[in-house]
Amino acid sequence: VAALTVPGALTGQTVLITAGPTREPIDAVRFIANRSSGRMGFAVAAAAADAGAQVILIAGPTAQPTPPGVTRIDVETATDMHAATLSRAADSDLVIAAAAVADYRVARPADRKVRKADTPPSLELIPNPDIIRDVAEIVDGPFTVGFAAETHEVTDHARDKLTDKGLDMIAANQVGEGRGFEVSENTLEVLWRTGQQTIGPMPKERLGRALITLIGERFHATR
Ligand code: CTP
Ligand code: CA
């Protein structure tokens, strides 16, 4: 497996990447979030820039430094990430969804801090929009790549998501029990309609480069 970026593999292409978690407010000082360091998405963004792409990174709250040559747009909630992504998706050649988006948000977040002495709140949750699904519905839209973090039956669940969301590719990894989140070595099972390939285990930075190489190959093979 090529672990190095092919120089120029994405020259002239605009690549939009979502990365990191989202935060869904409960009140003025609390939120619901996902376990995500943003490291995988930022590694993919760095690799895409190295491959010659113009990269726009829509980032949830993370401690990651912005990779050189990457335009970063910071967002907090899934709703904001959806708006930031959808407003730019039709003008992009590829959209890669690496973000761990909260599936639900609190229906009526309190604008002040909820006090301990108050009646214990029960949170009503409502579904967030599915960002990559909406991107994949754009007619003559960009090449779409999703991620699937799974705890079990990784390949089956990932293939279901590929088909169900109408994506061009999906990169699946196993999470839980010290795997996937907040660890540096990872393995990706990359699936597309007519094939699949395993990359790793390797550090997320190398994984990002190998994934971008594979995405570049599939992108050029289908367009
Ligand atoms: N995703 C997204 N918008 C959402 C939820 C997920 O764009 N509101 C994207 C993720 O960035 C990822 C892919 O969809 O690329 C799969 O995310 P995942 O959480 O694994 O799947 P879900 O469809 O949310 O299903 P579930 O959480 O039930 O497994
Ligand atoms: Ca989800």
UniProtKB/TrEMBL annotation:
Cofactor requirements of the protein: FMN; Mg(2+)
EC number(s) given by UniProt: 4.1.1.36, 6.3.2.5
Reaction catalysis annotation: (R)-4'-phosphopantothenate + L-cysteine + CTP = N-[(R)-4-phosphopantothenoyl]-L-cysteine + CMP + diphosphate + H(+); N-[(R)-4-phosphopantothenoyl]-L-cysteine + H(+) = (R)-4'-phosphopantetheine + CO2
Annotated Gene Ontology cellular component terms: phosphopantothenoylcysteine decarboxylase complex
Region (Phosphopantothenate--cysteine ligase): 15-223
One GO process term, biological-process aspect: pantothenate catabolic process
Pathway: Cofactor biosynthesis; coenzyme A biosynthesis; CoA from (R)-pantothenate: step 3/5; Cofactor biosynthesis; coenzyme A biosynthesis; CoA from (R)-pantothenate: step 2/5
Keywords: Decarboxylase, Flavoprotein, FMN, Ligase, Lyase, Magnesium, Metal-binding, Multifunctional enzyme
Domain of life: Bacteria
Residues annotated for CTP binding in this entry: D103, K113, P129, D130, I131, I132, F147, K161, K165
Family stated for the protein in its record: In the N-terminal section; belongs to the HFCD (homo-oligomeric flavin containing Cys decarboxylase) superfamily. In the C-terminal section; belongs to the PPC synthetase family.
Function: Catalyzes two steps in the biosynthesis of coenzyme A. In the first step cysteine is conjugated to 4'-phosphopantothenate to form 4-phosphopantothenoylcysteine, in the latter compound is decarboxylated to form 4'-phosphopantotheine. Catalyzes two sequential steps in the biosynthesis of coenzyme A. In the first step cysteine is conjugated to 4'-phosphopantothenate to form 4-phosphopantothenoylcysteine. In the second step the latter compound is decarboxylated to form 4'-phosphopantotheine.
Name of the protein described by the UniProt record: Coenzyme A biosynthesis bifunctional protein CoaBC
Lineage summary: Bacteria, Pseudomonadati, Pseudomonadota, Gammaproteobacteria, Chromatiales
Gene this chain is encoded by: coaBC
Included stretch of the parent chain: 173 to 395 of 395
